[in-house]
Amino acid sequence: MLEHLFGSKTRYRLLRFFFHNAESAFYVRQLTRVLDVQINAIRRELALLVKSGLVEETTTPGHVDNAAAGAKLRKYYRLNMKSVMYGEMQELLMKGQILDEQAFVEHIKEKCGTICLLLLTGRFSGDREVESDLLIVGKIKTRNLEHIVKGYEKDIGFEIRYTFMTEEEFFERRQMMDKFIFSLFEAKKIMIINELGI
């Protein structure tokens, strides 16, 4: 939806990726691989974002190994958190993320079977300590779920860790005081569907 406002889907995806990885710097080929976008489109959008001041060019690799071949010769790009537009852009992208997540969840609800519990946590709730970003309980069409998640991952540029199980397995693990299940419920979370009365 917000790509219309930004004038380019690639620009929107780049900005969203940089805001999700605000502490890191990336070189052009990394961005093309992660976002699955042609190199010329990435270069064009980076040039515009650097000109706007929202992204800055650096020779510091950030999270990349300094010893890697050619690391010191590459140009890296990272979010410029000192930009005067940083705060407003962050708010706008957070609102856009909410809309994207709503569409993602609706797609899962429509295409992935009978769901009695759907919980978002981890990256969706800002709790990076959790082992899974998405818990789905019910009679799940696993291929549909895998296809939807892969499509969303490609769009947002990072991996979603998801867990699905039957209602029986969920209650069995809960009754056994399964550490993983309890960690999800103790973490910061967003309950989307709860037909189990939990």
Could you describe the largest sheet, including whether it forms a barrel?
Answer: 4 strands, mixed
What's the arrangement of strands in the largest beta sheet? 5-4-3-6
CATH topology of the largest domain, anyone? Beta Polymerase, domain 2
Mean pLDDT level: 87
| Element order: H for helix, E for strand | HHHHEEHEEHEHHE
Class based on secondary structure composition and strand pairing: alpha+beta
Which stretches are poorly predicted, pLDDT < 50 over at least 5 residues? none
For the record, what CATH class of the largest domain applies?
A: Alpha Beta
Structure notes:
The chain has 198 residues and is of the alpha+beta class. It folds into two domains: 2-84, Arc Repressor Mutant, subunit A; 98-194, Beta Polymerase, domain 2, CATH 3.30.460. Helix content is 49%, strand content 16%. A four-stranded mixed β-sheet has the order 5-4-3-6. A two-stranded antiparallel ribbon has the order 1-2. Helix 6 links the parallel strand 4 (134-140) and strand 5 (162-165). The model has no long low-confidence stretch (mean pLDDT 87).
